[in-house]
Amino acid sequence: MNIDFHFHVKLSKKTEFSMDHFNEMLDEARDQGLQAITLTEHFNTRRFDEVYGTLDRMLPGNNHYYDRDGFKIFTGMEVDVAEGGHILVSGPKDALLEIRALLEAHTAAESFIGLAELFELCEPRGMMVIGGHPFRESNPLYHVDRELLRRFDAFDLNGKDLHEIGIQENIALVLPLGAELGVPVVAGSDAHQMFQVGCVYNVLPGDYETVAELKAAIRAGACKRVISPSLHLQVRAAGAVKKLLKKKVEVEAV
């Protein structure tokens, strides 16, 4: 299975959810050779409930993933924590939405939940918890207490960071952190726009029906990360188009 563990289906937190944009993103993912994604929309995005509510109406699902003509969309979200990091949480949809409801009082920057508290919500519910872009200057995780960092199921080798920090430079930061703590490293594109889709992804043997199965395969060392030779161009193009589209949306909203 070729899968991306960090994937957005909205252009930004402030924009509305659009099935047209969603379908464009998924069409590109399939064209790039992916068979699955983990949907990690921001937990405090505008109208978070609308994302899963719309997908419930539009696509068949089984509480673990939505099926779009054989393409799997595993359920997840990206959570901001008080320490400043971004955390990718994925697992059964009912447990995910239960956690999201418990985070309702923590959606503003001044009230973000602590990482330890987030683990206490996620671990009993069997969620996979990935530390997003641990060395991003604006939202780092590497500085957090090592005992907390060891609780992650994986760290995110992030497409945007590979571009901004440098491919070899970012690898030289993230992989040693994972090795030191005994935490695997997986790839996530962090795509919000179609041009960034496929800049990085993961290859796992066989097929998977649940996030628990994916987590077990990652922990067993079965995950191979792939970095596109055109990563820099993809991320630059996506950033430029995203800026233009956001301006267009903002003008139309006035």
From TrEMBL:
Signal peptide limits: none
Organism lineage string: Bacteria, Bacillati, Bacillota, Bacilli, Bacillales
Official protein name in the record: Histidinol phosphatase-like PHP family hydrolase
Domain PHP stretches: 4-86
Domain of life according to the entry: Bacteria
